[in-house]
């Protein structure tokens, strides 16, 4: 069917038929998950969940909505990720707004949150509060999730990007934790004062030379500053390890996300700065993903 006709026919379509239509179009464009993308886009733009589709998939879609969805589908065909188009992405069961300078939070990063929750709860049990700093907070995914899960925690989100911090603050407001969240703009610990019980970070860790080879969906839409970890991918860890000793409260912990093949190198960096690795944690796919450190005991 010629292009114009294929989309003209969609005006009379049900939700299910619209998803099918988008799915075919995405398959022709060689997108890797055409059905999932079509469903996510239609559900996201019409504010439906899967139950709505099962129970009312045959409901007709208004012409205005069809037009909106088709224009979104065109963006997806140009490789813009579904959640960039929608403007939000779910993380640990909550929706986070995105903006041009924020990374889309990834499911692998939820591993870090799950890993530090028990540590934070122990701190709260012992001291009544837990001071958390999320370095390179982006949307605020890690830090704000911890504040939502731990009503006695207080958090600071830092980033080099003002745009990211503005988005993190909006997310804090939407999640109802803005009274316990503040932001600092700067290079890792440079503008940070005071001590924290928990330092968390998912720094950029892709090797500079690999950036050009990433999928177009990532390379073209996630901000480079959120991806590029320097020549060996480890620049962020070096800066964080160098600054952490002055800002870690006694008994405190550091948790960082890493690339699947970086854990030995990252452990080495933190050991050089007098931290010891307490735990190595794998993600849902079985890849090395999170490291937890504490201060080395005094000799
Ligand atoms: C991989 S993203 C992680 C974003 C978010 N924490 C998450 O897990 O979804 C890295 C973040 O670090 C920030 N960043 C990059 N270089 C930085 C620097 N020198 N100092 C502080 N933040 C930096 C980026 O802007 C980005 O938001």
From TrEMBL:
Keyword annotations of the record: Methyltransferase, S-adenosyl-L-methionine, Transferase
TM segment ranges: none
SUPFAM superfamilies attached to this UniProt entry: S-adenosyl-L-methionine-dependent methyltransferases (SSF53335)
Catalyses which reaction(s): L-glutaminyl-[peptide chain release factor] + S-adenosyl-L-methionine = N(5)-methyl-L-glutaminyl-[peptide chain release factor] + S-adenosyl-L-homocysteine + H(+)
One matching Pfam family: MTS
Domain Methyltransferase small span(s) in chain numbering: 129-208
Binding, substrate: 202-205
Molecular function terms, GO-annotated: nucleic acid binding; peptide chain release factor N(5)-glutamine methyltransferase activity
UniProt-annotated binding residues for S-adenosyl-L-methionine: 136-140, 159, 188, 202
Domain annotation Release factor glutamine methyltransferase N-terminal: ranges: 18-87
EC numbers, comma separated: 2.1.1.297
Top-level taxon in the UniProt lineage: Bacteria
CDD domains the record matches: AdoMet_MTases
UniProt xrefs under InterPro entries: DNA_methylase_N6_adenine_CS, HemK-like, N5-glutamine_MTase, PrmC_N, RF_methyltr_PrmC, SAM-dependent_MTases_sf, Small_mtfrase_dom
BP-aspect Gene Ontology terms: methylation
Protein family (similarity comment): Belongs to the protein N5-glutamine methyltransferase family. PrmC subfamily.
Function: Methylates the class 1 translation termination release factors RF1/PrfA and RF2/PrfB on the glutamine residue of the universally conserved GGQ motif.
Protein name stated in the entry: Release factor glutamine methyltransferase
